Amino acid sequence: MKIDFHTHIISEEFLNLAEKYGDDRWPVLEKTCDCGAKIMIKGKNFREITNHAWDANERVKDMDKEGIDVQVLSPIPVTFSYWADAEKGLEMARFQNDFISSTVAEHPTRLMGIGTVPLQDVDAAIKEMERAVNELGLKGIEIGSNVNGKNLDDPELERFFKAANDKGIPLFVHPWQTVGKDRMPRHNFMYMVGMPSETALAAGSIIMSGMLDKYPDLKICFAHGGGSLPYLLPRMDKGWNVWPQIRKTEHPPSHYAKQLYYDSLVYDENNLQFMIDRFGVDQIIAGSDYPFLLREAPSGKVVDRLKSLSDEEKERIHGLNALKFLNVRKEEYTKRLMTEK
């Protein structure tokens, strides 16, 4: 089974909260044709997308062409909108979670979904996380790499991570509102440099916080191979050793990095091998960033190119690790998938 864990989706009938609330900070979907649209923010084009971003049938056609059995759907990060009032943020989150759930219902064996929550209000976020998983059947929650500039180890956010730990709900961390964004207006550096740096900062915050000692069942996966984290770990270990006053953990950072999950979206066999050496095969999950330009096509192509991996190890990265992370029983899902096909 091949699962593409990292894909994004948006409703063709996306909420226009900019018009509803008279606030142009909200992302708005402007159709340009039946096959495309622009995501607009403050009257400017944030991103152009094709109908593959909302049309589940087109998505499944691509999956069939590329040999992908299952996609895991998640919101586009710009829609997190943590800056908004909690009540309005909840409105956005509920709309997206309902949409993803209904899309999964159209292709229940080919699609899975993970939702979003208004993380600017922890109580509302926990309540919506429970609704998304328990009522809508979503498999986890996607969260941003920071909340209005607060790193993920901010004390105000800890109750959310405790709830995810206690309820066994997996979290997918995706970069947004990247560190140093004011210095990256040219060369599309926000995507090429900002996002990997932001992801490393988010992962480092979790690792250094002590949460993984307190909440050992917490499941977190970081996008884009953990960004620059794999290459920074030796420096983090050094800092942990020479500055005992900063320690909040029982072990050095590299110990906890092996408890986290990472998608395989690093494009290069040497980088993937480095990740495997750092984290282990069981912590890597194939993901492509479908349907955007920086996607890997097909998902897991770099996994198949890595000659050091056995067939059994490739099988784990391509699908089994995702099922384990999402708390889905392999036997049950494989049977359903084969029956539909």
Automatic annotation (TrEMBL):
Keywords from the UniProt entry: Decarboxylase, Lyase, Metal-binding, Zinc
Top enzyme class: lyase
Pathway stated in the Swiss-Prot or TrEMBL entry: Secondary metabolite metabolism; quinolate metabolism
Name of this protein: 2-amino-3-carboxymuconate-6-semialdehyde decarboxylase
TM region(s), chain numbering: none
KW Lyase (keyword) present: yes
Stated family: Belongs to the metallo-dependent hydrolases superfamily. ACMSD family.
PANTHER family: 2-AMINO-3-CARBOXYLMUCONATE-6-SEMIALDEHYDE DECARBOXYLASE, 2-AMINO-3-CARBOXYMUCONATE-6-SEMIALDEHYDE DECARBOXYLASE
Domain Amidohydrolase-related: 3-327
Subunit structure of this chain's protein: Monomer.
Pfam families for this protein: Amidohydro_2
Enzyme Commission number(s) of this protein: 4.1.1.45
